[in-house]
Amino acid sequence: MAYISLYRKYRAQTFDELMGQSHVTVTLRNAIQQGRIAHAYLFCGPRGTGKTSSARLLAKALNCEQGPTPNPCNQCRFCQSIQAGNCVDVVEMDAASETSIEDVRTSIIENAKYPPMEARYKIYIIDEVHDLSAKAFDALLKTIEEPPPHVIFVLATTEFHRVPPTIRSRCQRFDFHRGTIADIAIRLQQVLDAEGFRAEPAALHLVARAADGSWRDALTALEQVIAFSEDGVITPQTVYHALGMLEDETLMQITDALLNHDAGKALHLLDGQMLLGREPRTLADALIQHWRMLIQAALHAQDQAGMYDPTLWGAMVEQARRAGVPRLLRWWEQMAGALGEMRSSGSPRAILELYLLMFACESPTPHTATPPPSTAPTTASSPPAETPAQPPIAPAIPSPKQEQTTIPTVSTGEGIDPDYANQLWHQKVEELGQRSPAGRTNLRGSRVLIENGTIRLILASQMAYEFFRQKSERERNLIQTVQSALGMPNAPVKLEYSQEPPREAPPPPPVAEAPVLEGEALIDAINQTFNGHEVEPEA
């Protein structure tokens, strides 16, 4: 007997076996039991979530010799022929390859008026229905709206928005959900038990994560992992090598190297992945997903502990705390832009190296910065201290999209040169303008003063002052921006506005009236205007 792929071999044959879609199976079974069978159904959802399987289950339940029944027997000739895909009264049409109006007319419209040859219902299953042409949809509309009593349509699509509203309104819609990591792992374990293989729980979690909620993709990946394993035991390393996934430990090490400003180690780790055949785009996408999980770990927005080994999850939580959400968001945004550049570049590795070097060489942020050595405190009797030199600025590699502003951080405001403080603040205002033009407009002309550890932000006008005071969240964000720009995260900030009226531009100097020229004086002026060329009078 020919080998059958796992996703075909273990396709759900009853509504009970269809996992993760209880809202669909319960509704369909109740409708069949109550005799409330619709003439058209629209199954929507991501790939591999059971849309076509549910359509075949519905066909078996309606045409079973024991039915219509919510529990088909799977033993009668109709159940077995539908399961094998050779029932003449259950027509499966692939709209991706049969898109024209002629395909719809010959396959559906002309044949729908005839009663079924053997079964109780004639059922049309149209997969990827969104690929039908506009004319084909128009031709199908009348038949779907008022089909013969023996015809039932089941339309399946992964892109619901591309199905015309006229078709949607005539169908009962069911949304299929992605499978969770835990549910997919349970299903994989059941398949492994039936196939006689063993796997570590961490390995099953890795396969489930790679499937991204698709039950079919999970079984396809498991089949590849089984073929790669030699001793019948599947380990996490087996999954990493078989599927070409990046190890979580490697992503942790690269992120640690960036946090520690160790550019050499980051490039060394990148070289190791390139030697293993990893694509730069794959590595960039894996880093984005890792930073995304770190942000979730920092914010506790979603409990993802079940996706990882407890030890690894604890390390990720600690790394997220050291990195800080603002930095991870910035890396995420810029690496996403790098992915777009890699697609059109002839050297994607060079772009990835550029961004990694930029992240490793950027200056410390206030979240993780260590204050510079403090100078000796000055007393009232001691002479005034000289203005200290500006702290050294860490070298930064400019981003291809925007210049990275390097801002040193200080723990207190004592001894900061006022001009230098305002230079830092004006740089921050220009950065803010890329995200909020209104904020930059109202911060134009503002200046900062630091007195006794308190930051005074003096706005240029009362209108700008009222703009930030009218919303508490806007004022709070402005205060945090000032503290971040000056490297004083705990310093109090006081908002003020300048009492001086705006300076008016000086009036332009008076322009002397040009004399009125006549006769010879006018001719001389014209000649002078045209560089002395004489104008010959007409004859």
Q: How would you write the strand order of the largest sheet?
A: 2-3-4-1-5
Distance between the termini: 112 Å
The CATH class name of the largest domain reads Alpha Beta
CATH topology of the largest domain: Rossmann fold
Word description of this protein:
By secondary structure, this protein is an alpha/beta fold. The protein has four domains: 6-175, Rossmann fold (3-Layer(aba) Sandwich), CATH 3.40.50.300; 181-243, Helicase, Ruva Protein, domain 3 (Orthogonal Bundle), CATH 1.10.8; 248-361, Zinc Finger, Delta Prime, domain 3; 418-497, GMP Synthetase, Chain A, domain 3. It contains 22 helices and ten strands. The chain has helices at residues 6-9, 22-34, 51-63, 77-84, 101-112, 134-145, 165-168, 181-195, 201-211, 215-228, 236-243, 248-259, 263-275, 280-299, 310-323, 325-344, 348-361, 418-435, 437-443, 462-469, 472-486, 520-529; strands spanning 40-44, 90-94, 122-127, 151-157, 172-175, 198-199, 233-234, 447-451, 454-459, 493-497. The strands form three sheets. A five-stranded parallel beta sheet has the order 2-3-4-1-5, with helices on both faces. Helix 5 (101-112) runs parallel beside helix 6 (134-145), helix 8 crosses helix 9 and helix 14 packs across helix 15. The longest helix is centred in the middle third of the chain and has 20 residues, at 280-299.
